[in-house]
Amino acid sequence: MFSYKKIIQTLLNKNISVSIAESFTGGQLIKAFTDIPGISKIFHMGLITYSNKSKNLLLNIPILTIKKNGAVNKEIAILMSNNLSKISKSDLCIATTGIAGPSGG
Question: Residue 38: its pLDDT value, please?
Fold first, then answer.
């Protein structure tokens, strides 16, 4: 069975720094990390880049790239993670993108 707590504890034990850029999860992944005692030792940064504007302003994702294929695709997720890595200097950067929200998707 999948356990995010085990993964986070492994990152803590190995002192692997982490930053997260979330889109469709709206902060839920960041909360899962920050609910763990001692996480401040490795958690550098959490950005909620829900809108295309925030992806552009905070993560330097070109608006034209987003308009070309939309914000929900592999290219955007990779750009989010790579650009977060440049900003945060974390060992591990996680990015989420997808379709969700109050009405699902």
Answer: 95
